[in-house]
Design a protein that fits this description.
With 245 residues, the protein is an alpha+beta fold. The chain is built from nine helices and nine strands.
Length: 245
């Protein structure tokens, strides 16, 4: 079994729950849109020659201590390091909770603080809108975690509206189990036929947690089947992630 298939088994098990397929209900649900809570942007970056992760760590420490923009608490900055290439590639994530368009100000802030010297990034203003579906809060350290990002597309005649009831059931079920876990749903401004689903795991042995508390649960097959009915995931990538501020 290849690694891609293994990842998707884990991902699909974590998504959605079972409800009857009623044609009239599907048509009504197609009109429902998400009530987004924040905007979300990814910037793919690579450290320049002669610079390493120690330089990046030093820059991020300076960013947290010295910049007033960060202290306003209107956004979070997360850093994602791909499991496959931890040496020089990473992703900056800007999660904006305010109504202000802080994209330009954020890029300017990085440049003024000397970020251009140590890394080059693709600052593509591809705006995503997001909802935090689950955020387990039980004194768990959320400064470092494992993030799984899935790219998914809705099946024909399905969208967020048809997915909504299943999501609610999934949320209720996961909350009852108590896994240290966060789920984020993201949609692109330009496409309602696809979405990103992000799983954040806050314990190192999260695979053990999934096996013991979810995979063997009687609801897991129905949940996976409901997800497959609504959407399909194209790929999934795993990252070591860190909340900077």
């Amino acid at each position: 079994m290849n690694s891609f298939f293994k990842i998707n088994i884990i991902s699909l098990i974590f998504l959605m729950s079972c409800s009857p397929k009623v044609e009239e209900g599907i048509k009504a649900n197609l009109l429902i849109s998400p009530e987004f809570q924040f905007s979300y942007q990814f910037f793919e970056c690579e450290l320049k020659q002669d610079y390493n992760l120690l330089y990046l760590e030093s820059f991020l420490s300076k960013l947290i201590k010295d910049n007033s923009m960060v202290k306003e608490n209107e956004f979070d900055i997360n850093i994602f390091f791909p499991k496959s290439n931890y040496v020089n590639k990473f992703i900056i994530n800007l999660q904006n909770y305010s109504d202000k368009d802080i994209y330009t100000e954020f890029i300017s802030m990085l440049s003024k603080m000397g970020f251009d010297e140590i890394a080059s990034c693709v600052f593509d203003k591809n705006n995503l809108n997001g909802i935090q579906l689950i955020d387990f809060d039980n004194n768990v350290d959320k400064s470092s975690y494992t993030a799984e990002i899935l790219r998914c597309s809705y099946n024909e005649e399905y969208n967020y509206g048809t997915f909504r009831v299943a999501i609610d059931r999934f949320v209720n079920k996961i909350n009852s189990i108590g896994i240290p876990y966060k789920a984020i749903y993201l949609e692109d401004d330009l496409s309602k036929s696809s979405f990103l689903w992000i799983n954040n795991f806050y314990v190192k042995d999260y695979s053990k947690e999934i096996s013991e508390k979810w995979i063997n649960d009687s609801d897991s097959k129905e949940i996976k089947d409901e997800f497959i009915e609504n959407a399909r995931c194209i790929d999934a990538k795993i990252y070591d992630a860190f909340l900077i501020t």
